[in-house]
TrEMBL record:
Catalytic activity annotation: a quaternary ammonium(out) + ATP + H2O = a quaternary ammonium(in) + ADP + phosphate + H(+)
InterPro entries tied to this protein: AAA+_ATPase, ABC_transporter-like_ATP-bd, ABC_transporter-like_CS, CBS_dom, CBS_dom_sf, Gly-betaine_transp_ATP-bd, P-loop_NTPase
Annotated organism of origin: Neobacillus niacini
Topological type in the membrane: Peripheral membrane protein
The ABC transporter domain, residue ranges: 2-236
EC number: 7.6.2.9
Domain CBS: 254-311, 313-370
Gene3D superfamilies: CBS-domain (3.10.580.10), P-loop containing nucleotide triphosphate hydrolases (3.40.50.300)
BP term (GO), one: glycine betaine transport
Protein name per its UniProtKB record: Quaternary amine transport ATP-binding protein
Superkingdom field: Bacteria
Cellular compartment(s): Cell inner membrane
Amino acid sequence: MIEFKNIVKKYRNKTIIKPFSIDIEAGQLVVFIGPSGCGKTTLLKMINKLIHPSAGKIFVNGKDISTMDAIELRRNIGYVIQNTGLFPHMSIRENLELIPKLKGEDPAKIAKKTEELLKVVGLNPAEYLDRFPKELSGGQQQRVGVARAFSTDSDIILMDEPFSALDPVTRNSLQDELVQMQKELNKTIIFVTHDMDEAIKIADKICILKDGDILQFDTPENILKNPANEFVEGFIGKRRVWNNPELLMAEDIMIPNPVKITTKRTVLQAIEIMKSNKVDSLMVTDKNNILIGLVTLKGIQLLNRNSEIDSVMEKNVLAVSEESNLISILATMNEHKIGYVPVINHSKQLTGLITRSSILSALSSQLIDLEVAF
Ligand SMILES: Nc1ncnc2c1ncn2[C@@H]1O[C@H](COP(=O)(O)OP(=O)(O)OP(=O)(O)O)[C@@H](O)[C@H]1O
Ligand SMILES: [Mg+2]
């Protein structure tokens, strides 16, 4: 949908954007985030040809925009600029209706849409339509800016810190509205922010920038779980895993390679293995490492020592998949009143074991990281 290919931007001798390449899919909400001056606005403005790259190409819907008419291109891209950019000499209504009118849309439809959009951003049309931008607060102007971006019926909307002047409550509700509108209307949105919480909340993908370089371009989940480097880690803060415990997956919590036994061994051997590994239960696996049962010391210590594991093990063992998260694992353990649960992969092979103490040590290692980071 929008492809940056080896984009470079230089001002005099200074390189602002290093070769920058990403491909933004249609219908996605991509957030650009990074420190002030890293080039976010510059990248956004290149998409509608307000700034020209020093090298490289941008394709919109497969078309090289350097070959396209700038005015025509801009009419089809909604743009909320940093600091609203409303036309001061036009009323709110005129600001909102400008582009739809230029595109020759039906006037009755335009009027209806204008009112709807104002309501969506929390402004009463009767009160605000005929005011001028300077008669609105900064936050109200920003909301009109957002409404205007959606008024164009364009598939692409560029939003440069559109919510920065809003109070947290309004900001929160506009974030929700934005995501809903975007999914309903299937818009492709590039959204610039400084606020990582905002990015995580609304983004399909986040592009983290620093000094004109991409540090990481990935889903919020992957960035939180696997920050590409220390800068990203610092930027997102370790504490996020605490705020989002569902991001901790079985794989992150489990003891890998738990002690196990195969079916043809005996009770005597099982007890020996338990003793030497200081555990009181063993997972039973077949020759392909598929989990098929479980033996506990309590369950087998009074049995005939020569019995085969096959005949004494508990079958139908409850297990969780590698992708299940901490919240669902805790729920499972609580519901079944169990102190441990094996972890299996897609082929039902045993890959780990979660115990109360493995959960505790995973959580406390996060806590220790936190103390070091702050
Ligand atoms: N016309 C210009 N001439 C020279 N340097 C410029 C020009 N426009 C922007 N820059 C520089 O390019 C860099 C990137 O600017 P840009 O506006 O893209 O940053 P940004 O990431 O949007 O920052 P912020 O978060 O503060 O909005 C900055 O260092 C800025 O000073
Ligand atoms: Mg900027």
